[in-house]
Amino acid sequence: QLQLVESGGGLVQPGGSLRLSCAASGFSLDYYAIGWFRQAPGKELEGVSCISRSGGSTNYADSVKGRFTISRDNAKNTVYLQMNSLKPEDTAVYYCAAASGSCRWSIHSYDYWGQGTQVTVSS
User: What was the pLDDT predicted at 47?
Assistant: First the structure.
């Protein structure tokens, strides 16, 4: 069974950090660009970050630049999203997704999606 599983979400105070993981099972992430998306209550799904298959290229939404870092460990078949200096507006369900092509912001470019992990930033 091909699936992506996110983990690492939780409740954190403003200014805090979390690291999300996206682990694949049933297929190798080596051949996929991986994107992170998020959906806040009442809002549309938005792209947060993406990393190319080799890891040599990364993209970030303006809202998270300088605070979030995406990385991948193909040996562990896992992609990470390090989130620092978290703000209440980062509160959302975070999803990872795999695209057989290159990084894109369009959700329609992605072939596999995880179930999501909740991130809540609140004091």
Answer: 97
